[in-house]
């Protein structure tokens, strides 16, 4: 009978207790006491089980798993990248007991707003990961603010994080990477003669400008700079420009009555530099692989320490290991050679996907795992804290604007075209490189 029900039965004499009954039947006191203890314990257990059962039935169904919204390309030119990242994120979510809601970042603005708003209306959503493109980051940041849900933006363009107090840029910009490379190099070789080669693209502009600026702030000067068209395959004129034997001209300009050749340069005589100590090659792995033979053949560059950014980390680099052995580039993920949690992640990843993970795949694994283990409130508090959180790619921290405070790893290229982290970049000596 329910505790709230009223009984209309007539009162009856109270029954005798177990102890009284036992004594009346002639049982010994010790036996009766033992018997009563057992019965009382059983009754207590039964009562607790009934109470627990009542509480369980009174509670609503078990809380649904945390949900994470992935805003990634599911159409358009980047669909392959988007689908690949979604696969990894689904694996990470399932591993953490969460679920993934996928929204196509390439939808028209109105459709994207509608799809993302619908996804964020679910109270189980703990965060957003994406988009890749900066042009969509502002819209995602605004909607995350309205829903009061943290958004971890995968764009590496500086400033996208400032559009919402709930937005955090998860990836380092090209400029931040290049600035770090300059600071690293200056700590190793403060008196070095330094040069930069970069493509005539937004990527190349940002990398060259940031590296030169950071090096100049140390009171030093970049002595060689060469730019080239994207997709260039003939790098002899580029190397000659770097060393001062050629100068680059803008279209339509002349020097001493001479117009630029097909590479956009004019030869000005003997090269001005007999060598460089450090050279930043600010491009992606396929371009670096094309440049490598020209660089190693140039006598003035055979003792030069080559530096690169995260764009070096790709399959084409493996084809140029012999030429680029000893070069150092910078990235937030060192792969299996990083050891610890990173090694375990790579082994699990290769078992599942039968290939090595890219840096961005390791990063989204971190981000999904973090959000899945946090509620909305816990996630935003952690993201705004000075401690941040730890993942397979290292520690994640953000400044008050939401920009990443990550320290890239210095990775040395081996002769077989792979790369290994330097044990402690601040302790390395030039000879060790």
UniProtKB/TrEMBL annotation:
Keywords recorded for this protein, A-Z: Membrane, Signal, Transmembrane, Transmembrane helix
Residue runs in coiled coils: none
Domain spans labelled Leucine-binding protein: 67-401
Stored InterPro entries: BCAA_transport, Leu-bd, Peripla_BP_I
Membrane-crossing residue ranges in chain numbering: 39-58
Record-stated family: Belongs to the leucine-binding protein family.
PANTHER family noted in UniProt: LEUCINE-SPECIFIC-BINDING PROTEIN (PTHR30483), PERIPLASMIC BINDING PROTEIN OF ABC TRANSPORTER FOR NATURAL AMINO ACIDS (PTHR30483:SF6)
Protein name, per record: Leucine-binding protein domain-containing protein
Source species: Lujinxingia sediminis
